[in-house]
Design a protein that fits this description.
two-stranded antiparallel ribbon; about 50% helix; about 10% strand; globular; BFD-like_2Fe2S-bd_dom_sf; BFD-like_2Fe2S-bd_dom; BFD-like [2Fe-2S]-binding domain-containing protein
């Protein structure tokens, strides 16, 4: 499923990036070489990122 239609970012890509990089949605998008366009995805992206990080056995430190 796509989380960001404008950038064609799939949920699984976002989850993987969330496990590897700190920061919020805009920061994680930047690590994927993207940036928010319309912004409609940001709330859902933040939720997905938080959910993924909560599941980590050793959470990333806040940036």
């Amino acid at each position: 499923m796509y989380t960001c239609i404008c950038n064609a970012i799939r949920e699984d890509e976002l989850r993987k990036a969330a496990r590897q990089h700190r920061g919020g949605a805009e920061s994680v998008y930047a690590k994927l070489g993207k940036r928010p366009n319309c912004g409609h995805c940001l709330e859902e992206a933040e939720y997905v990122i938080a959910e993924e990080r909560e599941a980590l056995p050793c959470p990333l430190a806040a940036a």
